[in-house]
Specification:
3 domains; 420 residues; Dihydrodipicolinate Reductase, domain 2; alpha/beta; binds L-homoserine; Alpha-Beta Plaits
Length: 420
C-alpha cells in the first residue's frame, strides 16, 4: 500500500482525493499497489468540511509522518512550498507537485535536493496535457527546434471571446474568474507570468536552460482592445497569448507575449480555456498537444499519473529535468533585445496633415519597413493608426516606440503586438 499526504486540498487537491477513490480499481491495477490518501493539509478546517480524509492545518504533520510515502504539494505560492518540499525530500519522501511558480524559481535546487528520490511535476504545465512526459521521454531522441504554446487558459478564454463575440476585456475577466480557471491573483494570468513559469519549466527539459522569470521577455494581454482584433481579422490573424522557446544556433530565445498568428495555423484554432502546444523536434518534425490546461479533475489526472508512476518504480528512474548530465556544448539564453520579429503597432493620433509622414520617417530612420497600414477614425479629432512591419530587431522597435510616444500628436501610449 502507498500512503499519500496532500498539502493543499482546494480545487485540485479535492479532485485528487476524489479520483483516487472513484477510479481506485484501474489505478490499483496500473500501479500494482493500493494508493490511499492518509492525510490532507488545509488552511482552514472550517472551509474543509465535507472532505472524507483526516485533516491537519500543519503541512509539516504530513512531511514528518513516517508512514507517508508520497507528498503531493498543491499549496500555491513559491517560497513556503519550497521549504515544505525540501523538508519532505530530506525526510526521504517522494514528491509530486503542480506548483509552476516554485519550479520557475527553484527547479534546479530541487533537482539537487531530490537526488535519487522521485520528484514529479506533470501537472505544473498545461494541467491535464502530458507535455512533460512527452518532452522528457517521448521526444528525448530529438534536438528541440521550438515550442510554441497556448499555456494559459484564462487568457485564451478571454481572447477567444473578444475575437468571436466582440466582448470587451474587463467584462470577460470576471467570467474567467467565475469559471475557476484564473490564478488566485489574476494578474499572474493576464500579465503572462503563469505562462512564463510554465515555459521556463519546459525550456529546462527541452534545452537544459536554467533561466528565471526576470531573465526573459514577459508581456501580458492587458493592452489588447477591439481595435487590435479588427486589425487581426482584416489581415487573417488570430490573437493569442503565446509562450515561445526557439533554438537559434547555440542560443535559445524564451518569450511570452500577445501574438498575432496566421489564422490557418493549427495552434490558432485552439480556442476557449483549452491549451495547445506545438513542439518541433529535429527528427520527429512537428507534434501538437491539445487539452484542458486547468480545472480540478484535469489537473488531478496529471498529479495521479505521477503518483502511479512512483508507485510502480519506487526509486527515481530518470533525471527530474530530463538531462542526466549537461550538454557538452550547452545552449545560452538569447538577449531580449536580439529577438527578431514582425510587429503590429497601434497609435492613437490627432488626425491632421503630416502626421503619417512623420511617423513613417521614424520607422525608416530605424530601418524598419512598414508592411501594411490601416486608419480607423475615433471621432472628429482622433484616429487609430494600425501598422504592421516586416521583420525587425526588438531593440529597434523599442526605440521607435519611445520616439513615437514623445510626439505631440500621439495621444496615448503606443501599443505593440508581435506577429509570429
Ligand atoms: N490560471 C491557469 C490558467 C491555471 O488559466 O491556465 C493553470 O495553471
Amino acid at each position: 500500500m502507498i500512503r499519500v499526504g496532500v498539502i493543499g486540498v482546494g480545487t485540485v487537491g479535492t479532485s485528487v482525493v476524489k479520483i483516487l477513490e472513484e477510479n481506485s480499481d484501474i489505478i490499483e491495477a496500473r500501479a500494482g499497489s493500493k494508493i490511499i490518501v492518509k492525510t490532507g493539509a488545509v488552511r482552514s478546517l472550517e472551509k474543509a468540511r465535507g472532505l472524507s480524509i483526516p485533516l491537519t492545518t500543519d503541512p509539516y504533520d504530513i512531511v514528518n509522518d513516517p508512514e507517508i510515502d508520497i507528498v503531493v504539494e498543491l499549496m500555491g505560492g513559491a517560497e513556503a512550498p519550497y521549504a515544505v518540499v525540501k523538508q519532505a525530500l530530506q525526510n526521504g519522501k517522494a514528491v509530486v507537485t503542480a506548483n509552476k511558480a516554485m519550479l520557475a524559481y527553484h527547479r534546479y535546487e530541487l533537482q539537487d535536493f531530490a537526488g535519487d528520490l522521485p520528484f514529479e511535476f506533470e501537472a505544473s504545465v498545461a494541467g491535464g496535457i502530458p507535455i512533460i512526459n512527452a518532452l522528457r521521454d517521448g521526444l528525448s531522441a530529438n534536438h528541440i527546434e521550438s515550442i510554441v504554446g497556448i499555456m494559459n487558459g484564462t487568457c485564451n478564454y478571454m481572447l477567444s471571446k473578444m475575437m468571436h463575440e466582440g466582448v470587451a476585456f474587463d467584462a470577460i475577466l470576471k467570467e474567467a474568474q467565475a469559471l475557476g480557471y484564473a490564478e488566485a491573483d489574476p494578474t499572474f494570468d493576464i500579465g503572462g507570468f503563469d505562462a512564463a513559469h510554465k515555459l521556463l519549466i519546459l525550456a529546462s527539459i527541452a534545452y537544459g536552460i536554467d533561466a528565471k522569470p526576470e531573465d526573459i521577455l514577459i508581456e501580458g494581454i492587458e493592452a489588447v482592445t477591439q481595435d487590435d482584433i479588427y486589425f487581426a481579422k482584416e489581415f487573417g490573424y488570430a490573437l493569442k497569448l503565446l509562450a515561445i522557446a526557439k533554438r537559434d544556433g547555440d542560443e535559445v530565445e524564451l518569450r511570452v507575449h500577445a501574438a498575432l498568428i496566421d489564422a490557418n495555423e493549427m495552434i490558432a484554432k485552439i480556442d476557449g480555456v483549452m491549451n495547445g502546444i506545438s513542439v518541433v523536434g529535429d527528427k520527429v518534425g512537428e507534434t501538437l498537444y491539445y487539452g484542458p490546461g486547468a480545472g480540478g479533475d484535469a489537473t488531478a489526472s496529471a498529479v495521479i499519473a505521477n503518483i502511479i508512476d512512483i508507485a510502480r518504480s519506487g526509486r527515481k528512474s530518470r533525471p527530474m529535468l530530463g538531462f542526466d548530465r549537461p550538454l557538452e556544448h550547452g545552449l545560452r539564453l538569447k538577449a531580449k533585445e536580439a529577438i527578431r520579429s514582425k510587429y503590429y503597432l497601434r497609435l492613437k493620433v490627432v488626425d491632421e496633415p503630416g502626421v503619417l509622414a512623420q511617423i513613417s520617417k521614424i520607422f525608416g530612420e530605424h530601418t524598419i519597413s512598414i508592411a501594411a497600414m490601416l486608419q480607423n477614425s475615433i471621432d472628429s479629432r482622433y484616429a487609430n493608426l494600425l501598422f504592421s512591419t516586416h521583420t525587425a530587431h526588438e531593440r529597434d522597435i523599442q526605440k521607435v516606440l519611445l520616439e513615437l510616444e514623445g510626439l505631440h500628436f500621439v495621444a496615448a501610449k503606443p501599443v505593440m503586438i508581435r506577429i509570429v
